[in-house]
Design a protein that fits this description.
6 helices, alpha/beta, five-stranded mixed sheet, 42% helix
Length: 207
């Protein structure tokens, strides 16, 4: 949708913008690693998970996590399920099921601490496994009020491509983002460029 694309220019990213990025990472990168068991949960599903009293009732609509090693969850601070596209801040939760740890990356630390805690508790109940929440204070920090969604996308890509998919089986993976900087302007241009590339490819195929 045009409004979703417009937010990529200089505004707060919508659910659809982040969902597009997750789909891009899945199709262009994750599919090249058939032995990887990593789930990129869409923002709408992450929100539904946090807002549902008993997460076990969502088992039929959520992915099957029985063989999953890691789950990425975009976290929104909205607490009112009646408000579409609500909330004012995004952060990223990476649940390492194999380690029993939920790593939280908040670009306005510690703004989303309570939302991350809630998501961790819901995932723990859903998985039937105790999860320890680790709020990573060294996560890259934004300098304005609109780049949080961009930071989620950049950090997600770095953790997925630069850490998880590069690691050999049994490797101990450091999840710290210490020293990693995020160029939000460059990231927005990259995302817009990807969308434009898909648009041109679609036009070429229709000819």
């Amino acid at each position: 949708m045009k409004e979703d694309v417009d937010t990529l220019k200089d505004d707060w990213l919508t659910d659809n913008s982040i969902a597009f990025w997750e789909e891009y990472l899945e199709r262009e990168h994750l599919t090249q690693y058939p032995n990887a068991h990593i789930v990129l949960l869409r923002p709408s599903m992450s929100f539904m998970l946090t807002q549902t009293e008993d997460p076990l009732t969502l088992k039929e609509v959520l992915p099957d996590f029985s063989t999953t090693s890691h789950v990425f969850l975009p976290i929104n601070d909205c607490r009112n399920p009646a408000i579409a596209e609500g909330g004012s801040h995004w952060s990223l939760l990476l649940v390492s099921i194999v380690d029993g740890v939920a790593f939280h990356y908040d670009s306005l630390y510690p703004s989303n601490a309570s939302s991350a805690q809630l998501a961790t508790e819901k995932m723990s109940r859903l998985l039937g496994k105790q999860l320890i929440l680790r709020d990573l204070e060294d996560a890259p920090q934004q300098e304005n009020s609109s780049d949080c969604g961009v930071f989620v996308c950049v950090v997600m890509k770095h953790l997925l491509l630069g850490k998880l998919l590069k690691a050999a089986r049994g490797d101990k993976i450091g999840m710290s983002m210490g020293g990693k900087s995020v160029d939000a302007h460059k990231a927005r241009k990259e995302m817009l460029g990807i969308i434009e590339g898909f648009r041109k490819e679609g036009e070429r195929r229709r000819r």
